[in-house]
Design brief:
heterodimer, A: 4 helices, about 0% strand, B: about 280 residues, mainly alpha
């Protein structure tokens, strides 16, 4: 947790909820559930692997795939009813990568539709565009 | 391949120390992994992946407290993500030795920063410049310690933006959050209140780390066998570390971290010079 100094304990006395506050809450829950889901998937995958093989040692590479190829490969395996522990671990990693991505997407929708702030809709679109490009990178 | 019973506890400790010191897990994690025999580029790749988890985990709490400034975050992210892509591309291109030396230098820099530990004042004086005003870089938050709402305006966005690009390069290059660098830019250059700068930098770190990770992923440097125990460990360690932060005296944490940092810095630089 990179920069968490000097942050006071949370209390109930925060200003009245505005649209901004609702957005903050949405972003907060998105991040929290993304990370929690990812951790749960990885943990269950590792434990399952342990039960199957008697070791926590997972050895398989992700051979030069971008996130979307990676996701497609996983979905294909899951669709063929060959759910393996490593599928869960991979899904956990994918969820982790998608978490900040979805956060940016949510921010863009917020600036676009709730705020109607064109300047920031554009900025967020740039961020989303660069991230999409980098996740499609070959 | 490093065994699980070593990898997992080492990652917990790295995440724990990182959170206690208010730095990301990566600063401790990467040297620790290389000591265990992990190749430095794989260590960097798995570290930046774990940075997504730790920063998003802590960002979630702060965003809900309404301290984070989404606009400032979004504006600066445009620069940090391009920086991170650049940094990661450099890491792939160079050999390991300069990475060791560079990492050692960053550790040394953090050590000096912690040693001096100047309570820097954020430069709130003077009117907001036109660029920053046009960018709507302002906000307000409710400060619990003083019990009132604080309004603030960010300054010198034209200077902050290229500096954030540089911070992104460091993050992508070395696989760390580089939160300390970002906070310094927020505080000293843009004049954000400390609370806003730390939380907003946390939000930026997650997206920046994602950009860096995407480069490492496509080049096959993300090894799930390594990533799974490391991420779980770092997140668990950081979770405990953040909660202990309030209870332990700052002074003892600082002294402990000073020793750890200088040791790791020397070790990394020596390895870089000797070449293995």
């Amino acid at each position: 947790m990179a920069d968490d100094r000097k942050i006071p304990e949370r209390t109930q006395t925060v200003p009245p909820p505005s649209r901004d506050a609702q957005m903050d809450a949405l972003v907060g829950y998105l991040l929290l559930s993304g990370v929690s889901l990812s951790m749960a998937l990885i943990a269950v995958g590792l434990l399952w692997h342990r039960l199957r093989t008697g070791t926590f040692h997972l050895a398989y590479p992700i051979e030069g795939m971008n996130l979307f190829e990676f996701l497609l490969a996983e979905i294909r395996i899951a669709g063929q009813d060959r759910l393996r522990p490593q599928t869960l671990v991979d899904a956990g990693i994918a969820v982790l990568l998608l978490t900040p991505y979805l956060r940016v997407l949510a921010s863009m929708l917020y600036f676009l539709f709730a705020q109607r702030n064109w300047k920031y809709s554009l900025f967020t679109a740039v961020v989303l565009g660069v991230l999409t490009f980098s996740l499609f990178l070959r | 391949m490093v065994p699980f019973y070593l990898l997992f506890p080492v990652s917990i400790v790295a995440g724990f120390i990182g959170a206690m010191a208010g730095m990301g897990g990566g600063v401790v994690l990467i040297p620790a992994l290389t000591l265990l025999g992990v190749d430095i580029k794989h260590a960097i790749a798995v570290s930046i992946l774990s940075v997504i988890a730790t920063s998003s985990g802590s960002a979630s709490a702060y965003v809900r407290d309404h301290i984070t400034n989404l606009k400032i975050g979004m504006f600066l992210e445009m620069f940090t993500i391009v920086g991170a892509l650049t940094g990661a591309a450099i890491t792939l291109a160079v050999s390991s030795r300069p990475l060791y030396i560079l990492f050692g230098c960053v550790l040394l820099g953090s050590w000096i920063a912690l040693l001096v530990s100047a309570e820097h004042q954020s430069g709130q004086a003077g009117p907001q410049d036109r660029t920053s005003r046009w960018l709507e870089l302002e906000g307000s938050y409710y400060d619990l310690s003083v019990g009132r709402t604080i309004d603030y305006q960010a300054r010198r966005a034209y200077l902050g933006a290229p500096l954030m690009f540089a911070a992104g390069v460091i993050a992508g290059l070395l696989g760390i959050g580089a939160g300390a660098v970002k906070v310094l830019i927020h505080d000293l250059v843009m004049g954000l209140p400390p609370k806003v700068s730390t939380t907003t930098s946390n939000l930026i770190i997650g997206v920046t780390a994602l950009a860096g990770t995407s480069v490492y992923l496509v080049h096959g440097l993300i090894d799930p066998g390594l990533a799974a125990p490391v991420i779980l460990g770092v997140v668990a360690g950081a979770f405990v570390g953040t909660r202990l932060l309030v209870r332990l005296s700052n002074q003892s944490v600082r002294k402990f971290f000073l020793v750890v940092l200088i040791g790791l810095a020397i070790e990394m630089i020596v390895r870089g010079i000797r070449g293995h």
